[in-house]
Design a protein that fits this description.
heterodimer, A: about 300 residues, MetI-like fold, about 70% helix, B: about 325 residues, mainly alpha, 2 strands, about 75% helix
Amino acid sequence: MTDYSIQERSLQPTSARVEHPLIETARMFAGNRAALSGLAMLFIIVVVSLAGPWFYPTDPFEMVWSPFSPPGAKGFLLGTDYLGRDLLAQIIHGGRATLAVGCAAALLSVFIGITFGALSGFYRGWIEETLMRITEFFQVLPTLLFSMVLVALFGASLGMITFAIGIVSWTGVARITRAEFLKIRELEYVTAARSSGASNTNLIFRVILPNSLPPIIVQAALLIGFAILFEAGLSFLGLSDANVMSWGAIMGNNRPYILLHGFTIMYPGLAIFLTVLSISLIGDGLNDALNPKLRNR
Amino acid sequence: MQFLAITLKRCGLGLGLLLAVLVLNFLLMHLAPGDVADTIAQDAGGLDAEVMAQIRKDYGLDLPLWEQMLKYFYNVAQLDLGYSFYYNQPVTTLILEKLPATLLLIISAQVVSILVGVVLGVIAARKPNGIASHFVTILSLVGYAAPVFWTGIMLIILFASMIPLFPIGNMVDVSVERTGFAYMIDVLHHLVLPMLTLASIFIALYSRLARASMLDVLGSDYVRTAQAKGLSEFQVVFKHALRNALLPVVTTAGLVFSGIVSGAVLVETVFSWPGLGTLAVQAIVARDTPTILGILFFSSLVVVVANLLTDMVYRIIDPRIKTAETSEI
């Protein structure tokens, strides 16, 4: 009899209501301390970058004191750069351009990647063959060198820099999207939608794409971090928009003086490090929350 | 036999990719504002239109576009990548001079990061909640988030400026003439910091990958069988499990090669390492288009060759995949 009662209990559903997947994801994410601290850190960085310039209006391009005065001297908390400009002002004002380029470039590469991956995974055949060859081509191309060439030949404006970063970083998204499409297009609900007369556009955008989004979202988050690192790299090599202050540009400007005045590069680098770190913590958290199978890793 | 056929097919694909890089190079050269005549005119402080037209004719710039392209392909096939007016040297000579330094840097960084990454990953996987495992997690986050050139500068400040263990820049100590063994030691001494800087990104990547795949493999039936028949821990981990756990590492090693070349450009700039990256940055400052595009071509060549080699290694350590496409991971 006792056996029977245990069996009966196990037949009871563990919870009365079934949780909405989004709520479940949010709950998983909220339980992840690393991801939450990443989110908090990123929030602070974004708020400081967006609102900081109003609270700390010192012009980042204005020479305010002698060059390379050490942090703390004369009320300049982080010191001054090679032209005697306030480093703290540069970091506060530079955040906007860095974050904007990072987000815009990531958006561009997600757009290209989804287009390539979705078309090749859905239509297969010669379309897939062609698009995958192009993807392979961009995988072989040394990304930074190609972006350097683009920016050097066509001018170092923020738009060109964003384009040069976005155009080389989409291959990962394309491969992931294609893999998801290949997997999902064989599932029964897709066949059901197809046999009830859904058009190809409908199948791609309303049936398959929404279901393949989770890994793409994770990849998109990581791409923002990648694009920020990439922009910093280009600026470090001197390929930055001279009219716009960004974290990478500060490091590029002070590059010749790293041995004697390392602090001018340490602080902007730290800002980039913390930003990318918080983004990858969030990305990892999203990955765990969206991917129940990986939770025990 | 099949191995040979697949290798040949891969070589064919690689050649196709290189041809595509050449087409891209050619298009960039033509879309870019200014041509050879403009460069010469700028150097000479202005030339009249007639001389400019003559120069364009000498360089074949008045021919139809497709004819110029075929000529360009023909030249590249003979290893002629054009002439650098900035350095007054053929681009191929320039590049071949700098290539060994870059190859030394990227190959040593790749080898060291795979070795260190795999060892760290294996140690971490054997105790998933141990200190080593947390260390790998932190390392992989830090290694990814820190801009590689920034890591390099921090290493210079730490280990060359504050604690002078290593030289600061260049590949050799130019103040002393060295030959033979002493020269090699000197190069290795200069190599340590740039190599570690470049490896730092990839150690993070490989250790994380190796840890995840090792955890997978250690839970599989055949590993339990190996343990059950009384093999030592060492034999189980290194002879049975590692071989399979290495597969994702090898796949990734091939995929990240273009990233390594990109990283090398930054690391070379930080450490004044006399390789292709430094040359590319100088050429860009000098607006030396033939040199820049030549470097783009040569580094694509390096990536294609590296991919081919990775693919062969993959098929040697995993005999199951004799025929399957390995690029579709």
